[in-house]
Amino acid sequence: MRALELVGFEGPASLQLGERPETEPGPGEVRVRFSNMALNHLDVFITRGLPKRPLPAILGSDGAGVIDAVGLDVGTVQVGDEVVLYPIVSCGQCAACQAGQEVHCPKMAILGEHTDGTLQEALVVPAGICHPRPAHLSFAETAALPLAWLTAWRLLFTRGQLKTGDWVVLVGIGGGVATACLLLAKAHGLHVVATSRDAAKCARALELGADVALPSTGFSRAVQEATGGAGARAVVDTVGPATFDESIRSLGREGMILTVGATSGPKLELLLPRMWFRHLALLTSTMGNHSEFRCMLEDVNTYQLRPPVDRLFPLKDGAAAFAHLEAGEQFGKVVLSA
Ligand SMILES: [Zn+2]
Q1: 337 CA distance to ligand 1 middle (Å)
Q2: How far does residue 159's CA lie from ligand 1's centre (Å)?
Q3: Using CA of residue 246, residue 251, residue 253, residue 256, what is the dihedral sign?
Q4: C-alpha 28 to ligand 1 mean position (Å)
Q5: Looking at the chain, which terminus has fewer C-beta neighbours within 10 angstroms, N or C?
Q6: Chain segment 205-251, per-residue pLDDT in tens
Q7: Mind listing the pLDDT tens digit for each residue in 50-105?
Q8: How far, in Å, from the CA of 208 to the mean position of ligand 1?
């Protein structure tokens, strides 16, 4: 069985195609034969040793395919089912798991970060993380969903509690989470402002339903104008230091910054008075619970949403796919074919 193996921490150049033995599912497990797998920035960071994990490693949190073997005591799915995977494995026993808060499980493992992941032809997983894939999507589009769309759903609707009619600004449109936020926000009746340094990405955001698209430089003034001076309810800022000040200036009173990442660096200089005088909040999140994954899939089905796929690469060209994502020129997800 072919697998994309990480053999060092020198970036995409440390990825190579290898061979792994097929494994059989144990009790409660199934084997999923992947049709497509998608990349996340998390995978790129691991190729740079952030965080380091034992090598050789198989990365990848996102996968969609067909169940081709079923272990004992599995009643929920069967051979031939077309599935998409909830990208988190948790202990199922602790107080957090019992409360449906898998993101707070001390033993929580993301596929590909803590265990071998989806960037191979097949993977044995707990049957419970397999969900029927949305029928209106291709396997490639389905593979684009898990981590980015789960993260976006929790951020907007659990953490942000955003409602129909709210204005939300999506800074740096084009990445997986930002494009997921755009489509989910529009489905829920929010007003969306997208920003990008790239005019082509702004045009694409408008095609996908954004109400306003703005260049990245000095966008707060235009957001204030677009909202009639009220400011936005929320800004999803996954860029960080490069845009944070503009993001804060875009908010209305009691508005919030929502963040799940920082592509321009991890350290931030924050002028606190600018926050408290307008009662602003900073809310963070990462990934999401199993119940939120179900809600996300339900939205995708109900509103017939289609995740944009930037480009498809064969598994053997995985290193090139990683380099493409690392360059940051993509719009939507970078997807591999098994
Ligand atoms: Zn747990």
Answers
A1: 32
A2: 21
A3: negative
A4: 17
A5: N
A6: 999 999 999 998 899 999 999 999 999 999 999 989 999 999 999 99
A7: 888 899 999 999 999 999 999 999 999 999 999 999 999 999 999 999 999 999 99
A8: 38
